[in-house]
Predict the structure.
Amino acid sequence: MIDMIAKEDPIISEEEAAQYDRQIRLWGLDAQKRLRGSRVLLVGLGGLGAEVAKNLILAGVKGLTMLDHEKVSQESCRAQFLVPVTAQGENRAQASLERAQYLNPMVEVRAQAERAEDQPDDFFLQFDAVCLTCCSRDLMVRVDQLCSKHNIKVFCGNVYGYYGYMFSDLGPEYNYVEEKPKMVKPSGDTNDGPKAKKAKVDPNETTMVKKTASFCSLKEALEVDWTTEKAKAGLKRTPVDYFLLHVLLKFRTDKGRDPAPQSSGEDARLLRQIRDDVLESMGLNRELLSDDFVSYCFSEMAPVCAVVGGVLGQEVVKALSQRDAPHKNIFFFDGRKGNGVVDYFGPQ
Amino acid sequence: MVQLVGSLRKEVAESLSTCRVLVVGAGGIGCELLKNLVLTGFKNIEVIDLDIIDVSNLNRQFLFQKKHVGKSKAQVAKESVLQFCPTANITAYHDSIMNPDYNVEFFRNFMLVMNALDNRAARNHVNRMCLAADIPLIESGTAGYLGQVTVIKKGLTECYECQPKPTQKTFPGCTIRNTPSEPIHCIVWAKYLFNQLFGEEDADQEVSPDTADPEASWNPAETEARAMASETDGDIKRVSTKEWARSTGYDPAKLFNKLFKDDIMYLLTMDKLWKKRKAPLPLDWHQLESQGRPQGEVKAVGLKDQQVLGVWGYCQLFQHSIETLRSELQEKGDGAELVWDKDDAPALDFVTAAANLRMYIFSMTMKSRFDIKSMAGNIIPAIATTNAIIAGLIVMEGLKVVSGELESCRTIFLNKHPNLRKKLLVPCILDPPCANCYVCASRPEVTVKLNVLKTTVLALQDRILKERFGMVAPDVNIEDGKGTILISSEEGETDANNGKFLSDFGIRNGSRLQSDDFLQDYTLLINVLHAEDLEKDVEFEVVGDAPDKAPPPPSNQEDASSIANGNKDSAQPSTSNAAAEVDDVMIVESEGEEEEEASSSSAAAVPTSGTKRKHLDDETGEASVKRPRTNQSHESADAEDDDDDDDIIALD
């Protein structure tokens, strides 16, 4: 049985039907209704956050709460399109509110100028899905553990220069549907040919198939043991982006921020050092991740935010509507190569 | 450590702030693209779009709000962008890129052109302009969850027209008129009917039974007799449908009886057609009226438009829509014609009713207005996220172009699900130009098979040169030693030639026609191959087109565009929204796809050629054979459909 999001069945108004027409034709009315009943928390309104906000607001969720403690900087104006240029010094979430709301007046958009770290557990539990950007590893692990227990869908993501990732935790037993075409078996009697069928079957008829998927926690995804034989054997087919992610997460843990152009020289040195430490602690060769990456992981590149924000936004939409196979469980984008891969990390 | 401005090297950032770029289209991809460009640091941007904003755009074209509906997309896009980036230098044109004002000189102003289009005619045109101006072009397309980006540079890569693109699927006349077997046939019939009754009448859009249907005859002699009879005697076809309708005062009951009773009874007399098919069932208005149930009994599931009415419901809809359309015609005065538009409620009502009644007659499951709108209007479902991803990739490629790193440019495919190599985004090496491309080869030539005795000059201009070969304003002269001018792009100069046949000018097998489009700086040499054995409904064939698995002849090209676009001349800019929701997206393909029957799909736009292309996977260098997708919105075509079993299974 597909578990229903426990909400009253929201009615789609004529106005909504007209506005959402082109997406209802893609994912169906049922999915749109589920979106229409969903509340989402978005942490971090940097470049990636703004993209996710836009995508979810346009999709027509019930409510989006934007939480951020950071202030609008000069960088912010280059990074995202929701803050007005005059808003420097203001809180990023609050400065984004007006333009975010304009995107779709039918969505309840809220802004909270607070730290995610300071929020009590209860706070997170009011949402159907939580989306974490610009967050430290510890915070993400904590929130993921909390939300997963309560059947709240968790997404994490970040953009570092040309690189970006998104992670999903939809819980140990995630139910969804896929639309498959109904197979029309050819008639057994070949003499008559297809036109002899009594009733005409619409070749475009489809059927909804129920499926289940299982997700692990962020903690498990990050704590893969690479010293086992099996892991070593799989190393060749593993995207190195995974290890890059570890380096960047460690950087944030140590410095409280992502690599910044203002301190590029020093940050570059630190990144290389962290790379050495991280790979060594995993029992892996430091050459797995070449020095190259260091020049390309500074600041948030707008087009990379657009790509990662698009993938992340769509995963949230899928999860809220419980339709179509989710990516499992990490998506990596390498903007230098144009490569976008999805791979699973965690217990088998 | 290099000096950075944000994420970019200083030199690149500086190039961005000085170079000029052109964005063609301010819709789904265009809005996202403009946003990405200014945020990345591009300062001088020109954007052009002929369209105005519609409420159905608002789910993804985020630069527009409800209050902007009806306004120019290019204009409003510019204003919205300036809101978050006041220092950007943006020029907006509410115009068609095919307007001759935008000549080669205009294109040469730009370092880079990026397409954000939704129709092939404009893509072909911009392709040629960029080749002529030798400016790099980034081409892209999206449909549903799928998308694609590629880079086109003269001499270095394939141009947009190097690989033949699938043509719009069309159906043979007798299928539409006599033996429909799928809902789409009935919908096409209903659109033809609309034109016959209320719009521009077209000899290729007949709705009455086709007495000359070869399938109806028991032997070849009978076929000939039928063909001659239908031409000579006072048949159903003789009186124009519109004249007849007018003579009845557009009486719905009379129209109903002719179309759904009398004509069907006539079809029944062509008994051979029904030997192996279920015969159609003629309708009787009064009988249906007495059987009709009030609508209130049925509980509605879904949107109002998604309800499927009973047959009596469609009789009523037929009546009401005719009455409305009749008034509209009257208001417009003498000689007035209506143009079919999916967003025009009575027009859509009419097609919904007529198509469903016909479906009922031919024992097909009737469809909701919602579904019919999709099929008749060729709607391609669209969402914000796919466009956001593709527009992000466009700028990534754009940065490479601006940095002079063309060799690192790629074609990138966006899948719905990761492929066997775990890739959701698949970059592929760009292919070099095709040596015999009829656009970018040094002296392009084609051979066209046609009947010189039956092909008019007008048909050559409109169907062949404009529709098939993408010219906008062709000039044609015959290579006969005298350089006889056949067609002049100057208005009116060669109108007198239009109705004449090619043979009247001495054109015969082996003749060569030099065709130029001066705006596109494009010359095509056409070798004429005379043939009298072309299939019914086929006006011409381009020799050397990749053969299909089961090649349906590219019948009646004009048919194709009017089915797809609701707008006859696809070369001209449309002022209505009708033509905007149009045919195609770039072919979006993914690896390891199951071979598929070219089934008729819910959109009339279905690829008909199964061209195989090898795209080298960037990393592995492996070649993967790709097939064009048929219906984008049905994900049956997805890579990795390894589900033979449709049971409940865990993913892994």
Summary: Chain A has three domains: 14-173+301-342, 175-211, 219-296.
